[in-house]
Amino acid sequence: MFRHHPPDRPVEAARRLTAGRLTLEIAGGSVVGNRYPANYDVLHVDPTLPLAVVCDGMGDGEGSRVAGATAAETFVTQVRAGWPTVDGLRLRAAVAETQRRVRQAGAAQTGLTGCTLTALVAEPDGDQGWLVQIGDSRAYRLRDGLLELVTVDHTMAWLGLLHGWWPADSPEAAQARYHLLRYVGHPDRPEPDLLAVPLRRGDTWLLCTDGISDQIGYPRLRDLLAARRDPARTVEALLAASLDAGGEDNATAVVLRVHPALPQPR
Protein backbone atom coordinates (compact mmCIF):
# COMPACT_ATOMS: atom_id res chain seq x y z
CA MET A 1 0.00 0.00 0.00
CA PHE A 2 1.27 3.49 -0.82
CA ARG A 3 1.78 5.71 2.19
CA HIS A 4 2.30 9.40 2.63
CA HIS A 5 5.80 10.69 2.11
CA PRO A 6 7.01 11.22 5.70
CA PRO A 7 6.99 14.93 6.65
CA ASP A 8 10.32 16.72 6.37
CA ARG A 9 12.11 13.61 5.17
CA PRO A 10 15.40 14.51 3.45
CA VAL A 11 15.10 14.41 -0.32
CA GLU A 12 16.74 11.32 -1.77
CA ALA A 13 19.37 11.49 -4.50
CA ALA A 14 17.97 11.88 -8.00
CA ARG A 15 17.26 8.75 -10.00
CA ARG A 16 18.47 8.45 -13.58
CA LEU A 17 16.31 6.55 -16.04
CA THR A 18 17.02 6.01 -19.73
CA ALA A 19 14.21 6.54 -22.24
CA GLY A 20 15.43 6.09 -25.80
CA ARG A 21 17.97 8.78 -26.60
CA LEU A 22 17.29 10.65 -23.36
CA THR A 23 18.22 10.37 -19.70
CA LEU A 24 15.59 11.55 -17.24
CA GLU A 25 16.96 12.71 -13.90
CA ILE A 26 14.17 12.77 -11.30
CA ALA A 27 13.88 13.65 -7.60
CA GLY A 28 10.93 14.35 -5.33
CA GLY A 29 10.11 15.34 -1.80
CA SER A 30 7.35 16.54 0.52
CA VAL A 31 6.92 18.51 3.77
CA VAL A 32 3.95 18.66 6.08
CA GLY A 33 4.17 22.43 6.66
CA ASN A 34 2.71 24.28 9.64
CA ARG A 35 -1.04 24.06 9.12
CA TYR A 36 -1.86 20.35 9.23
CA PRO A 37 -0.80 17.70 11.76
CA ALA A 38 -0.13 15.15 8.98
CA ASN A 39 0.82 15.03 5.31
CA TYR A 40 -2.10 14.29 3.00
CA ASP A 41 0.00 14.58 -0.16
CA VAL A 42 1.24 11.39 -1.81
CA LEU A 43 4.35 11.21 -3.98
CA HIS A 44 5.63 8.46 -6.27
CA VAL A 45 8.87 8.53 -8.26
CA ASP A 46 9.11 5.15 -9.92
CA PRO A 47 12.39 3.22 -9.47
CA THR A 48 12.31 1.57 -12.91
CA LEU A 49 9.87 3.41 -15.20
CA PRO A 50 10.00 7.06 -16.34
CA LEU A 51 6.95 7.86 -14.23
CA ALA A 52 6.19 10.37 -11.49
CA VAL A 53 2.89 11.04 -9.70
CA VAL A 54 1.70 13.56 -7.13
CA CYS A 55 -1.67 13.43 -5.37
CA ASP A 56 -3.17 15.91 -2.93
CA GLY A 57 -5.92 14.71 -0.62
CA MET A 58 -8.97 16.93 -0.14
CA GLY A 59 -9.27 18.00 3.47
CA ASP A 60 -7.47 16.65 6.49
CA GLY A 61 -9.47 13.56 7.37
CA GLU A 62 -9.16 9.85 6.85
CA GLY A 63 -10.92 10.10 3.48
CA SER A 64 -8.16 12.42 2.27
CA ARG A 65 -5.48 9.94 3.31
CA VAL A 66 -7.29 6.98 1.79
CA ALA A 67 -7.98 8.78 -1.49
CA GLY A 68 -4.39 9.85 -2.10
CA ALA A 69 -2.88 6.51 -1.21
CA THR A 70 -5.43 4.53 -3.24
CA ALA A 71 -5.18 6.82 -6.27
CA ALA A 72 -1.39 6.72 -6.45
CA GLU A 73 -1.18 2.97 -5.94
CA THR A 74 -3.89 2.18 -8.49
CA PHE A 75 -2.63 4.52 -11.19
CA VAL A 76 0.97 3.31 -10.89
CA THR A 77 -0.15 -0.32 -10.94
CA GLN A 78 -2.18 0.29 -14.10
CA VAL A 79 0.71 2.01 -15.90
CA ARG A 80 3.10 -0.79 -14.95
CA ALA A 81 0.63 -3.43 -16.16
CA GLY A 82 0.39 -1.82 -19.60
CA TRP A 83 4.09 -1.08 -20.03
CA PRO A 84 5.74 -0.59 -22.52
CA THR A 85 2.59 0.70 -24.23
CA VAL A 86 1.91 4.30 -23.20
CA ASP A 87 -0.89 6.11 -25.01
CA GLY A 88 -4.00 8.13 -24.35
CA LEU A 89 -6.33 5.15 -24.43
CA ARG A 90 -4.42 3.22 -21.77
CA LEU A 91 -3.91 6.26 -19.55
CA ARG A 92 -7.59 7.14 -19.72
CA ALA A 93 -8.41 3.57 -18.71
CA ALA A 94 -5.88 3.79 -15.87
CA VAL A 95 -7.62 6.88 -14.50
CA ALA A 96 -11.04 5.24 -14.89
CA GLU A 97 -9.87 2.33 -12.76
CA THR A 98 -8.34 4.77 -10.28
CA GLN A 99 -11.69 6.56 -10.01
CA ARG A 100 -13.44 3.25 -9.43
CA ARG A 101 -11.05 2.15 -6.71
CA VAL A 102 -11.16 5.48 -4.86
CA ARG A 103 -14.96 5.55 -5.01
CA GLN A 104 -14.98 1.98 -3.68
CA ALA A 105 -12.62 2.93 -0.84
CA GLY A 106 -14.71 5.99 -0.06
CA ALA A 107 -17.80 3.89 0.54
CA ALA A 108 -16.32 2.89 3.89
CA GLN A 109 -15.61 6.51 4.92
CA THR A 110 -17.97 8.94 6.61
CA GLY A 111 -16.46 12.07 5.04
CA LEU A 112 -15.25 13.16 1.63
CA THR A 113 -12.84 10.76 -0.07
CA GLY A 114 -11.14 12.62 -2.90
CA CYS A 115 -7.80 13.84 -4.21
CA THR A 116 -6.03 15.42 -7.14
CA LEU A 117 -3.73 13.49 -9.46
CA THR A 118 -1.00 14.88 -11.70
CA ALA A 119 1.39 12.49 -13.45
CA LEU A 120 4.11 12.54 -16.07
CA VAL A 121 5.10 9.35 -17.87
CA ALA A 122 7.55 9.16 -20.77
CA GLU A 123 7.14 6.80 -23.69
CA PRO A 124 9.89 4.16 -23.93
CA ASP A 125 11.60 5.90 -26.85
CA GLY A 126 11.80 9.09 -24.79
CA ASP A 127 10.75 11.56 -27.48
CA GLN A 128 7.33 12.16 -25.97
CA GLY A 129 5.76 12.20 -22.54
CA TRP A 130 2.18 12.21 -21.33
CA LEU A 131 0.74 14.50 -18.69
CA VAL A 132 -2.28 13.23 -16.79
CA GLN A 133 -4.18 15.93 -14.94
CA ILE A 134 -7.26 15.93 -12.73
CA GLY A 135 -7.70 18.51 -9.98
CA ASP A 136 -5.51 21.49 -9.12
CA SER A 137 -2.04 20.08 -8.62
CA ARG A 138 0.15 21.31 -11.48
CA ALA A 139 2.81 20.60 -14.08
CA TYR A 140 5.23 23.32 -15.18
CA ARG A 141 7.91 23.27 -17.89
CA LEU A 142 11.05 25.39 -17.94
CA ARG A 143 12.47 25.61 -21.46
CA ASP A 144 15.04 28.13 -22.70
CA GLY A 145 14.45 30.29 -19.63
CA LEU A 146 10.65 30.41 -20.01
CA LEU A 147 8.58 28.83 -17.26
CA GLU A 148 5.11 27.81 -18.44
CA LEU A 149 2.18 26.30 -16.60
CA VAL A 150 1.20 23.41 -18.87
CA THR A 151 -1.80 22.06 -16.97
CA VAL A 152 -5.15 23.66 -16.13
CA ASP A 153 -6.64 23.88 -12.64
CA HIS A 154 -10.01 22.15 -12.51
CA THR A 155 -11.47 24.71 -10.11
CA MET A 156 -14.22 27.32 -10.15
CA ALA A 157 -11.52 29.91 -9.45
CA TRP A 158 -9.77 29.07 -12.72
CA LEU A 159 -13.01 29.51 -14.66
CA GLY A 160 -13.79 32.75 -12.86
CA LEU A 161 -10.40 34.30 -13.52
CA LEU A 162 -10.37 33.12 -17.13
CA HIS A 163 -13.76 34.66 -17.86
CA GLY A 164 -13.32 37.78 -15.76
CA TRP A 165 -16.03 37.04 -13.22
CA TRP A 166 -13.95 38.55 -10.39
CA PRO A 167 -10.46 39.99 -9.70
CA ALA A 168 -7.71 37.53 -8.82
CA ASP A 169 -7.32 38.99 -5.31
CA SER A 170 -11.04 39.10 -4.53
CA PRO A 171 -12.79 37.15 -1.74
CA GLU A 172 -14.84 35.40 -4.44
CA ALA A 173 -11.69 34.10 -6.13
CA ALA A 174 -10.25 32.93 -2.81
CA GLN A 175 -13.40 30.99 -1.96
CA ALA A 176 -13.68 29.50 -5.46
CA ARG A 177 -10.10 28.23 -5.18
CA TYR A 178 -11.38 25.37 -3.02
CA HIS A 179 -14.26 24.44 -5.33
CA LEU A 180 -12.84 21.60 -7.42
CA LEU A 181 -14.81 20.72 -10.52
CA ARG A 182 -12.90 17.53 -11.25
CA TYR A 183 -11.07 15.26 -8.84
CA VAL A 184 -10.42 11.57 -8.19
CA GLY A 185 -13.33 10.27 -6.12
CA HIS A 186 -15.91 12.60 -7.67
CA PRO A 187 -19.36 10.92 -7.86
CA ASP A 188 -19.49 11.45 -11.65
CA ARG A 189 -16.00 9.97 -12.16
CA PRO A 190 -14.85 12.77 -14.51
CA GLU A 191 -12.12 12.09 -17.06
CA PRO A 192 -8.66 13.65 -16.84
CA ASP A 193 -6.90 16.01 -19.19
CA LEU A 194 -4.35 14.03 -21.23
CA LEU A 195 -1.57 16.01 -22.91
CA ALA A 196 1.09 14.53 -25.20
CA VAL A 197 4.18 16.69 -24.68
CA PRO A 198 7.58 16.56 -26.41
CA LEU A 199 10.58 15.93 -24.16
CA ARG A 200 13.61 17.93 -25.24
CA ARG A 201 17.17 18.01 -23.97
CA GLY A 202 17.51 20.80 -21.45
CA ASP A 203 13.87 20.77 -20.35
CA THR A 204 13.04 20.95 -16.65
CA TRP A 205 9.62 19.73 -15.52
CA LEU A 206 7.99 20.37 -12.17
CA LEU A 207 5.03 18.44 -10.77
CA CYS A 208 3.70 19.98 -7.57
CA THR A 209 0.75 20.26 -5.22
CA ASP A 210 -0.78 23.62 -4.38
CA GLY A 211 1.38 23.86 -1.29
CA ILE A 212 4.11 24.84 -3.76
CA SER A 213 2.18 26.73 -6.45
CA ASP A 214 0.01 28.77 -4.04
CA GLN A 215 2.92 29.87 -1.85
CA ILE A 216 5.82 30.46 -4.24
CA GLY A 217 5.29 33.24 -6.76
CA TYR A 218 6.14 32.86 -10.43
CA PRO A 219 9.48 34.76 -10.44
CA ARG A 220 10.76 32.84 -7.43
CA LEU A 221 9.56 29.52 -8.86
CA ARG A 222 11.31 30.22 -12.16
CA ASP A 223 14.54 31.25 -10.45
CA LEU A 224 14.63 28.17 -8.24
CA LEU A 225 14.10 25.83 -11.18
CA ALA A 226 16.73 27.61 -13.30
CA ALA A 227 19.44 28.09 -10.68
CA ARG A 228 20.17 24.52 -9.60
CA ARG A 229 21.15 21.77 -11.99
CA ASP A 230 20.64 18.85 -9.61
CA PRO A 231 16.95 17.89 -9.19
CA ALA A 232 17.36 16.84 -5.56
CA ARG A 233 18.83 20.21 -4.60
CA THR A 234 16.09 21.95 -6.55
CA VAL A 235 13.39 20.02 -4.68
CA GLU A 236 15.04 20.88 -1.37
CA ALA A 237 15.03 24.57 -2.32
CA LEU A 238 11.36 24.47 -3.36
CA LEU A 239 10.28 22.81 -0.13
CA ALA A 240 12.32 25.28 1.93
CA ALA A 241 10.73 28.17 0.05
CA SER A 242 7.25 26.83 0.82
CA LEU A 243 8.10 26.78 4.52
CA ASP A 244 9.64 30.26 4.34
CA ALA A 245 6.37 31.46 2.81
CA GLY A 246 4.46 30.23 5.86
CA GLY A 247 4.04 26.51 5.31
CA GLU A 248 0.27 26.95 5.01
CA ASP A 249 -0.23 23.60 3.32
CA ASN A 250 1.40 20.25 2.70
CA ALA A 251 3.90 20.85 -0.08
CA THR A 252 5.16 18.26 -2.57
CA ALA A 253 7.42 18.66 -5.59
CA VAL A 254 8.94 16.41 -8.26
CA VAL A 255 11.63 17.86 -10.52
CA LEU A 256 12.61 16.10 -13.74
CA ARG A 257 15.49 17.22 -15.95
CA VAL A 258 15.99 15.92 -19.47
CA HIS A 259 19.54 15.09 -20.62
CA PRO A 260 21.09 13.21 -23.55
CA ALA A 261 21.29 9.49 -22.83
CA LEU A 262 24.47 8.38 -21.13
CA PRO A 263 26.78 6.34 -23.35
CA GLN A 264 26.42 2.61 -22.81
CA PRO A 265 29.50 0.76 -21.53
CA ARG A 266 31.07 -1.64 -24.00
Give a brief rundown of this model.
The chain is an alpha+beta fold and 266 residues long. It has 7 helices and 11 strands. It is globular and about 55 Å long.
What does this structure look like?
The chain is α+β, with helices and mostly antiparallel strands. The protein has helices at 62-82, 88-106, 156-162, 171-176, 210-213, 218-227, 231-244, and strands at 15-19, 22-31, 41-45, 51-56, 117-122, 128-134, 138-143, 146-149, 193-198, 204-208, 251-260. It has a six-stranded antiparallel sheet. A hairpin with a 5-residue loop joins strand 5 (117-122) and strand 6. The chain has a single domain, classed as PPM-type phosphatase domain (Phosphatase 2c, domain 1). The longest helix has 21 residues, at 62-82.
Note the topology.
Blueprint: E1 15-19, E2 22-31, E3 41-45, E4 51-56, H1 62-82, H2 88-106, E5 117-122, E6 128-134, E7 138-143, E8 146-149, H3 156-162, H4 171-176, E9 193-198, E10 204-208, H5 210-213, H6 218-227, H7 231-244, E11 251-260
Antiparallel strand pairs: 1-2, 2-11, 3-4, 4-5, 5-6, 6-9, 7-8, 7-10, 10-11
Considering the chains and any ligands shown, give keywords for the structure.
7 helices, six-stranded antiparallel beta sheet, Phosphatase 2c, domain 1, about 270 residues, alpha+beta, five-stranded antiparallel beta sheet, 11 strands, globular
